[in-house]
Amino acid sequence: MDIRNIAIIAHVDHGKTTLVDKILHTTNVFRDNQDTGELIMDSNDLERERGITILAKNVSVTYKGVKINVIDTPGHADFGGEVERVLKMADGVLLLVDAFEGPMPQTRFVLQKALNLNLHPIVVINKVDKPNCRPEEVHDAVFELFFQLDATEEQLNFPTVYGSSKHGWFNTSLTPTTDITVLLDTILEKVPAPVVVEGPVQMQITSLDYSSFLGRIAIGKVTRGVMKENQPVMLCKADGTMQRSRIKELYVFVDMGKKKVAEVQCGDICAIVGIEGFQIGETIADIDNPEAIKIIPIDEPTMNMQFSINNSPFFGKEGKFVTSRHIRDRLMKELEKNLALRVSETDDADKFLVYGRGILHLSVLVETMRREGYELTVGQPQVITKEIDGRKCEPYEVLVVDVPAEFSGKVIDLVTQRKGEMHVMETKGMIQHLEFDIPSRGLIGLRSQMLTGTAGEAVMAHRFAEYKAWKGFIPGRSNGVLLAKTAGKATGYSIDKLQDRGAFFIDPGQELYEGQIIGEHIKPGDLVVNVAETKKLTNMRSSGTDDSVRITPKIQMTLEECMEYIQQDECIEVTPQNIRLRKIQLNEEDRKKAQKMMKAEA
């Protein structure tokens, strides 16, 4: 059977998953009367809620008798680890670019990986139905990008398809058609079939699946020979050791699911059951003549956070898994499939350092654990520093901001306060396109300030660039916080009296504990307030009634916003039902002692 393996790469929100929907519908994967919904490939709850792809997934369709294996990849820089490994399974890539925004930082990052692997690109300029889009300019910008990334002559001669995956049409020109067959024909014509290599069997594990019924399942592309059921094989481990094993069951991808087969040809993507103790990147090879394939290098993490048990007064009230052993086991399980993550244990048995690509990468892990019933405390994200040639260095990122022209001054001001330097300033229609070089530390907490300063109009994206010399002190948030003085229930009466002191994160009737952060102070410096005070009752008639209490609604913060908000002496308590901000030292006297000691040391 003829096969094509293709990965879809793009920036966030440029329409990858919608395109996969259209491919599935065009190739009649579903019955005509079947209700499938949208974004079929975004299968877990978090992906559906946020509208982003987090995990790379495989699906296979048949078109004109040719099997096309489609790999949907995430567009977010924080999940780059997912993209890097699955590109090994593809022979061609569909590079999806928005007809208005053009190539964005993430497009560049993934395209570079694809070109280095000599994959054949097809450029798809999507969303040409949007007002004020500029497909021709975007096409030139993509060509320019290929040129900058040292593409070969053959890669520079890429085919371009225009269209709108939402409206379900693609064409080689800007004339709308009725369906997406032009795109599918281009894939058959321009993406080469996998090279069939005879010889002893060889396959690199690029992804893994888990089934409670079958255990761990290895997924990858057979790069040499034919894989057969019940065949004895050798697992070439990352540390150079060899481990004998046997293939119990073989599956290939068909439509949205898997189908059991007796053998898999060279070049097809398959799933293998029965191999124990493997890691992503290791090779399944011939038993008599094992040869390992070089392991894919994954970019290093740039940020770490401390995960520890929940030690607040509300410990154990909501979660099922609350001990340090539970948290440790869960983090170790995550390491098996999350390649860009690292976990190291500390001197304290209750605390673990978790290293990741960025705040979103770490927050998705915390959110997933929270939904599974874990309680934990997470600290402020810190960047990872390195010593290069005897100098302290920190990670820098390229930050791209698109913002209406009237807000550009505000954006430049905010970024330069955080030690960012501007390199590019272009006008795209009504929008100013700004590019900065900024230390990763400067990005923490920048998004919320940026959205406030630009009335929610700024669109920002960033990607890791390199390690450069340490930039010195970067100011954190300017305002202090309001802290609860005593444990108890917050009352509307006391919140009403304190409204001029700042904005609150809590509602009346909420249970609090001492040292919990309940709002943002209007000035620098922290303020301890009593919000559990009730109105004193007397037998005198009071002219004011409690109906006249008008409380400003509380500020709702997502988990990422909380992570960016907290400072060094604060942490977040995460439970299945609540996310609370608190001081590490809950007692006011303890905090004062700690501050005195820090001053003495300084």
What report would you give on this structure?
There is one protein chain. This protein is of the alpha+beta class and 602 residues long. Helix content is 23%, strand content 32%. Strands 12-11-17-8-9-16-13-14 form an eight-stranded antiparallel beta sheet, with no helix packed on it. Strand 13 and strand 14 form a beta hairpin. It starts with a strand and ends with a helix. The relative contact order is 0.09.
Structural class: alpha+beta
Low-confidence stretches: none
Strand content: 25-35%
Quaternary state of this entry equals single chain
CA gyration radius, whole angstroms? 27 Å
Average pLDDT level: 83
Distance between the termini: 71 Å
Number of strands: 35
Number of helices: 15
Give the strand order of the largest sheet, numbering strands 1, 2, ... along the chain: 12-11-17-8-9-16-13-14
> Overall 3D geometry?
globular
**Major sheet, described briefly?**
8 strands, antiparallel
Question: What's the helical proportion of residues?
Answer: 10-25%
